[in-house]
Amino acid sequence: MTFVAVLAVSCCGDLQVGDFSVSPLPKEINIKDGDPYVFGRRVVIRTTDELETVAGLLASDLEEAFGKRPEISDNKGNIILSIEDSLPTEGYRIECGKDAIRIAGGGPAGVLYGAKTLYKALPICGQGPVALPAAVVEDAPEYPYRGFLVDVGRHFFTVDYLEELIDIMALHGINVFHWHLTEDQGWRVPVPGYPKLIEVGSKRSGTIKAPGSDEYDNIPVEGFYTREDMERIVKYAADRQITVIPEIDMPGHMLAALASYPELGCTGGPYAIPLRFGVFEDVLCPGKDAALVFAKTVLKEIMDIFPSKYIHIGGDECPKDRWVECPDCQARIKALGIKAIPGKSKEELLQTWFMGQMKEFIESNGRTMMGWDEVLEGTPDKDVVVCAWTSPAAVTRSATLGHPTIVCPIQHYYFSNPRFNQLKGRESLSRVYDFQMVPEGLSEEQMGNIIGSEACIWTEWVADSTKLEWEMLPRLAALAETQWGSPKDLDAFLPRLKKMTGLYDRRRWNWKEDIAQAWEEVVE
Fold first, then answer.
1. What does the H/E/C string look like for 25-85?
2. Considering 173, 348, 437, 456, which has the largest number of Cβ atoms within 10 A of its Cβ?
């Protein structure tokens, strides 16, 4: 990695000069001799048909910065966008000189990331002419999977607001929106043939007021996304080079579905959508053919809507108590000839069989299955992608077993967790920024199994946009640098973070201001 010191954001008379020391920090920033590029004259973005969407997004960013939207042209311009096959698909190069700025990428994603770096490099202080120094910037992300999860099962968020969250992700170079669509407390997806999932499963009468409380607020929570809503989100994200990975959590976390269709559970109900949070004994019954048909019907609808390579089916926090007592589950175990093995019960292996049925169905539709690391309790195939959330040790276990692994341990990357999110200031940033994504002791082959990471917002205690953004920002910037592969130096990161919070303010995004104490001594 090469890093050449860059010109700090400054105001030279009326001329304000920005710098390319943005977040995530580019791999190479080389300042050149020569006059800067000054934005005080007419700005025209030159593009191609393939980059028309990227050009439009850059024009919107520059309009926000300058108050005037640049022109877009296919034959002239002083900001020139292009594809260059020699660059990595997500890589880019910026060449900034007196007369023009050229942004080349290995594909539309690379050009977009270059455009975002350009936007973030602009100064945000005061008024007057703005310039960027003569420089060459070359960059590409280290990890192909850079994700962020939002849970809409516990609390519902509108399509318009999800688009705003996608904009936040795009600013940080996130390329996966993991959309957690169903939960015990709410089902958000219409499924043909199962109308009660929306009529019953998308609504609850209230929510527990606080962890451990016996009081409920009696405020109804409801909402679901139409097929058109979900397709709109897929396109909005794709325009920003973000893939939407849907999650339908099964066979646990299914009470909203069981309340709608009690025959899908082991006891037959009645079931109620819970007003509190946690892990519940009542789960989908893998002993019943109707439950298998239901699960596959749901997945088929999901795969018809979402074009993503990966389909997430949960597999976490699924108690086996009902299965032990259920005659249908025990009959299934007997018919399949499932026997307990050392360290694994018959019921744990029944879940492996169930997940295998879903995996086979997903693969028959040309997709790949994802699950939480509890799927390792059974004996899943090595091509199952594992989201290692329970601990850093789960990352090691998954990668050692040969699974493509997503790093997302609760201790570091669950931004909404009440225990860990109470940390203040520098410590709150450090637990994200300084976390070592790749565990020590892995072989080179095992390290190659780690394909990226994601942070999560679980919405048990996040009911509104202000709280969600407070949980998300500015820790997302710390995560993004880790995902991108920027050098680990928290003190050097803090000035870049201060610039990012200025952009948050300009866009009226809420961020946790006690973080400011972390950079007071470093930045001043």
1. CCCEEEECCCCCEECCCCCEEECCHHHHHHHHHHHHHHHHHHCCCCEEECCCCCEEEEECC
2. 173
Please tell me the predicted confidence (pLDDT) of residue 520: 64
Spatial neighbors of 176 by CB under 8 A, at least 6 apart, are 145, 146, 147, 148, 242, 243, 244, 245, 452, 454
- What residues contact residue 111 under an 8 Å CB cut-off, 6+ apart? 51, 54, 81, 82, 83, 92, 103, 104, 105
CB 298, CB 279: distance < 8 Å: no
Q: How far apart are CA 209 and CA 217, in angstroms?
A: 6
User: pLDDT tens-digit profile of 4-24?
Assistant: 333 333 444 578 899 999 999
Query: pTM of the predicted model, to two decimals?
Result: 0.95
Pairing of strands 368-372, 310-314: parallel
Nearest to 185 by CA among 272, 314, 264, 274: 274
Report DSSP state, residue 216: B
Q: What is the dihedral of CA 286, 291, 292, 295, to 10 degrees?
A: -120
CA 306 to CA 304: how far, in whole Å? 6
The Cα 345–Cα 487 span in angstroms is 45
- pLDDT tens-digit map of 206-242: 999 999 899 999 999 999 999 999 999 999 999 999 9
Task: Give the span between the Cα atoms of 249 and 152, in whole angstroms.
Answer: 12
- Helices 490-506/425-433 angle, 10° precision: 110
